[in-house]
Amino acid sequence: MLAKRIIPCLDIKDGRTVKGIQFENLRDAGDPVELGRLYSEKGADELVFLDISATHEKRKTLVALVERIAQKINIPFTVGGGISSVDDVRALLKAGADKVSINSAAVKNPQLIQDIATQFGSQCVVLAVDATCIDNEWIVHLVGGRVPTELNLFEWAKQAESLGAGEILFTSMDGDGTKKGFANEALAQLSKTVNIPIIASGGAGNIQHFKDVFTKGNADAALAASVFHFGEIDIRNLKKELTNSNIIVR
Fold first, then answer.
1. pTM score, two decimals?
2. Burial of 88 (0-12, 13-18, 19+ CB in 10 A)
3. % of the chain residues with pLDDT over 70
4. Domain residues of the chain, as ranges?
5. Among all residues, which ones are annotated catalytic?
6. CA separation for the pair 228, 237 (Å, rounded)
7. Torsions phi, psi for 247 (to 5 deg)
């Protein structure tokens, strides 16, 4: 069994880390560079930085910010938001990112997944999927959860894998910021659907939720934001508790 990963997520807007509930009512959570450095020191396995308004505002992710982050941390990090071409990816990797997360652009142009994987390898392509359950079907949404599509979560994940995606970052929009637990049933189904690692996002509120997402949801990694940003869960303590529950962590 691969060791499970703990991944803090920093949603960035106007150069600051923010956090909301179900993608709305954002509040400031600090400087992303400083938070990244702190998490790197505190035992996070990876980091994810998402420029959450880049696609909506039709601009590119902040390359200069990526460079500053890369200078401060020594763990892998993924960057997403506003990425729509191979050139965008090249610039971010050159700035120091290890992986890129693509969402809206991949739905509009699935070929982009294959193009990035061919140029840089599947290991650097993370497909981010924001989905909500509507009439018992998980429906993919775009542009920071603003725009529903006709895509089914599981079908889209399978297609993305076939095109070369190396990981799936699935955010339950229903759970985002609620601290009521991850969407474990959907995650378990997703893990049966694809053969690439799944990062679970949306709903982390306590240590039990992390235990459940690995044992019931079969996730390969768990991503969270506010519980880490506001000091509700300490990463080292979380890993200790997971180890005590016979869950292998890095």
1. 0.91
2. buried
3. 91
4. 5-244
5. 11, 130
6. 12
7. -105, 120
